[in-house]
Design brief:
Blueprint (H helix, E strand, L loop, with lengths): L2 E4 L9 H29 L8 H27 L2 H14 L20 H21 L1 H10 L11 H24 L2 H28 L5 E4 L11 H28 L4 H19 L7 H20 L5 H25 L7 H26 L5 H15 L8 H23 L4 H13 L7 H25 L2 E7 L2 E10 L2 E8 L2 E7 L17 H12 L6 E5 L15 E6 L2 H7 L7 H5 L4 E4 L2 H4 L8 E6 L14 H10 E10 L7 H12 L2 E6 L16 E6 L1 H10 L5 E3 L14 H10 L3 E3 L7
Parallel strand pairs: 7-8, 7-10, 8-9, 10-11
Antiparallel strand pairs: 1-2, 3-4, 4-5, 5-6, 11-13, 12-13, 14-15
């Protein structure tokens, strides 16, 4: 401890006003800091096709700005006087006024190559870099200012970091629950600008209170200075490592969720909110969850993360819930260990720099490095294993002796018995391993440090092998990873010969027979008689004598090319160059080579590229740009529908592929139709009885939009198309509003009403 003598004033009192002003300033600062992340990321989503990588890249930028802010706070607090710090920081904050209200910088056009991540970082820098940098310095700087006051808690101001994280967490939770559903984007930016002005005034007030209540001349007295010892290199590296792991895991979990559900702020926010919650728990004056208890939970969390993050697939929402819980436990364990090793307040700003550096490196690893060096998402599993290794290797609070050994052997025996019983009861092998492994892991808390290190090394190797070995079991013809996700071409044998599968994320989007006599047969969602085929046949039924023009949003493997006719003009829009390379390489898929007449493929976001299509020129627009179960929300908004309609001929139709396991896309599209004064019809493929290729055909749903007269004609042409009344839980989506909770709720409640078109009965 540092013995402090104060001349003229004893630091034994606490000013309610002083603590309140600093706490509220830090709270408001954090709320603004973390509300701008989903707000601005949502602003730029339409520019990059709604890709989930937008959020991961945004996080790298924000973490870098956070590190910059922490370094700035460290430097001015170290070299400037208290009064000069206040003046300097208020000037830096005032520079942020030049960027209000927040908006996308003019003149920035998305690249068509593979540099989207770096382009996006540049866009964020010129659009929100200055105000974000200024705000990011507040947390460490205000804590340092507080440590120089005469408050009784000034020597340990870390508790204020909990206020910072509470503000961040509240802001993130309110965004999808309150701000996103109630306010349009321009209203959100105006509200944020108002908050920024209020924050500026609060910082001025904090500076005033800090000067008024600053401590008298402090004289350090000889004595025990252990707590003020300067951190060494190894200590700093440990801080970096313990901060790196939760940051990397946060982005790994986010990628999993957004690739399989939707690129929507709600799903970005959940992992980040849990991340902040771990800080609140860890930095509380009294830890809410003790380290001793976490040592029992971490091994179980690691096993669950490995199992469900690698191979096990049950109910999607349940799987994600288990992964989130495990991620929370691991992140909390790392942050708790980090806080336990915090330095004296003299090194507070330096501590936050190293902690921020670790967080930024975790973001860089996931968003920039891993996509370049790993063909698949290996980084998530690697970091899970490293988490266990680091956490237990640097743990010195362990039991030893005969008692510990007996506990370990007892756990081994119990876990072995449980495994045998479960296996005899025909429980799947993966679940047997998880349950018995979880019981075994409880004995880890009794191992010595050396044995823990050996155990974690074994766990690391086992985890990597459990991820790599299954990869060799699947015959991948091609694997590619881009800014927009991981896509694979797999090969399997069937009674019809070799079949290639196009897999994006964890969803199979298409198949193609490699037999020369069967190559032209469209499969999966695009098979004859399925929703795509039936919608196209009706569009042709309505056409006049003029040329039939089709715009296909989403190329996939190119199976729709098999429906082209020589007299027709088809244009394909695809945002991911890697998908185009796959679909045009006959080693993988030959639909475009064998079936398409013009092979007119345009790379880029469909909403931007459709601007180049002449108005009133298209007969049929097909929207099929959903990857896995993820929705690029900007393609199903009021503004998007207006763009589609502007490119249609008077008798043109719009087709939406709406198949989704977790979201009610049908209601989103039907609500858009109602708002635009159009009618909609819904259809779903039932079965493929009698079809010799049924094994490679997928059930699908679709909604088609047109005028009242067109839908009346459709009712007669194909009675399988039904009227649809959208769920009341789903609102009208626009570029300024897309609320994912409503679609999740509607899918769960199944309250969409489908009517027979003729008699209007459900």
């Amino acid at each position: 401890m540092v013995d402090i003598s104060v001349s003229g004033f004893e630091k034994t009192r606490s000013s309610w006003a002083l603590v309140s002003v600093f706490t509220l300033s830090i709270f408001l600062s954090a709320a603004l800091l973390f509300s701008v992340q989903p707000l601005f990321a949502k602003l730029v989503l339409p520019l990059l096709g709604g890709s989930s990588s937008v959020w991961n890249t945004a996080m790298v930028f924000f973490q870098a700005m956070l590190l910059g802010g922490y370094i700035y706070a460290h430097l001015i607090s170290k070299y400037f006087s208290f009064r000069t710090q206040i003046i300097t920081h208020c000037f830096v904050l005032s520079m942020g006024f030049l960027f209000l209200p927040l908006s996308i910088a003019q003149g920035w056009t998305p690249p068509e190559g593979g540099t989207q991540a770096y382009w996006l970082i540049g866009l964020f820098s010129v659009s929100v870099g200055m105000p974000f940098f200024a705000i990011s310095a507040n947390a460490p700087l205000l804590q340092r200012w507080f440590s120089r006051t005469n408050d009784k808690d000034a020597e340990d101001p870390y508790f204020l970091y909990s206020a910072s994280n509470a503000g961040s967490l509240l802001s993130l939770c309110l965004y999808p629950l309150l701000f996103e559903p109630m306010l349009r984007l321009h209203e959100q930016t105006e509200l944020w600008a108002t908050g920024y002005v209020l924050l500026f005034l609060m910082i001025l007030l904090s500076g005033f209170f800090g000067l008024k209540n600053r401590q008298a001349i402090v004289k350090r007295v000889s004595g025990n200075t252990e707590s003020a010892v300067k951190p060494q290199l190894m200590q700093r590296l440990i801080w970096i490592g313990l901060a790196f792991i939760p940051s990397s895991l946060m982005l790994g979990v986010t990628s999993h969720m957004t690739n399989n559900i939707a690129s929507a702020p709600l799903l970005w926010i959940i992992p980040l909110a849990l991340y902040l919650l771990t800080f609140i728990f860890a930095f509380a004056k009294r830890p809410l969850i003790k380290s001793e208890f976490l040592r029992y939970l971490v091994p179980m969390a690691v096993i669950i993360s490995l199992a469900f993050g690698v191979s096990i697939r049950i109910n999607l929402l349940l799987t994600i819930s288990l992964i989130l819980i495990s991620y929370f436990i691991i992140a909390l364990a790392c942050h708790t260990r980090l806080v336990e090793q915090r330095p004296h307040a003299n090194y507070l700003t330096e501590f936050y720099i190293w902690m921020s550096l670790g967080g930024m490196l975790g973001g860089i690893f996931n968003a920039l490095i891993a996509p370049s060096i790993f063909p698949k998402i290996y980084e998530y599993v690697i970091v899970i294993c490293v988490a266990a290794f680091v956490y237990y290797t640097f743990d010195d609070k362990v039991g030893v002796g005969v008692k510990a050994a007996k506990a370990v052997f007892r756990n081994i025996a119990i876990s072995a018995v449980v495994f045998v019983v479960l296996f005899i009861c025909n429980v799947p092998l993966a679940y047997c391993i998880i349950i018995s492994g979880g019981i075994l892991s409880l004995g880890l808390a009794h191992l010595s440090t050396q044995k823990r290190t050996m155990f974690c090394t074994l766990l690391l190797m086992t985890g990597l092998l459990s991820f790599i070995i299954p990869a060799f079991a699947v015959k991948d013809v091609m694997t590619d990873r881009s800014f927009f996700g991981v896509l694979r071409v797999e090969a399997e044998e069937s009674e019809h010969g070799t079949v290639h599968s196009f897999v994006h994320g964890d969803t199979v989007h298409n198949y193609q027979f490699q037999n020369d006599f069967l190559k032209r047969i469209p499969l999966a969602y695009y098979s004859e008689g399925n929703t795509f085929h039936r919608g196209l046949e009706f569009a042709r039924h309505l056409q006049s004598d003029q040329a039939f023009n089709v715009s296909m949003i989403g190329l996939g493997a190119g199976a729709m090319a098999c429906y082209e006719k020589p007299s027709e003009n088809w244009v394909y829009f695809e945002i991911d160059p890697a998908v185009v390379d796959m679909a045009t390489n006959e080693k993988y898929f030959s639909y475009m080579k064998d079936c398409s007449y013009a092979s007119d493929i345009r790379i880029g976001d469909a909403r931007l590229k459709l601007e180049d299509i002449p108005k009133g020129s298209q007969d049929y627009i097909i929207v099929d740009a959903f990857s896995s179960d993820s929705i690029p929300a900007h393609l199903v908004t009021v503004e998007a529908l207006e763009l589609y309609r502007s490119r249609l001929k008077p008798n043109g139709l719009i087709f939406f592929h709406t198949s989704n396991r977790v979201l009610d896309v049908n209601s989103v599209v039907a609500t858009l139709a109602e708002h635009a004064g159009l009618e909609s019809r819904y259809t779903a493929s039932q079965s493929f009885e009698g079809n010799p290729y049924a094994e490679f055909e997928n059930l699908s749903t679709a909604v088609i939009l047109g005028t009242t007269e067109q839908m009346a004609e459709l009712d007669k042409f194909d009675p399988q198309w039904k009227r649809i009344t959208p769920s009341p839980d789903v609102g009208l989506w626009s570029d300024g509003y897309s609320h994912i909770l409503g679609t999740l709720k509607a899918k769960y409640k199944k309250n969409v009403r489908v009517f027979n078109s003729v008699d209007q009965s459900p």
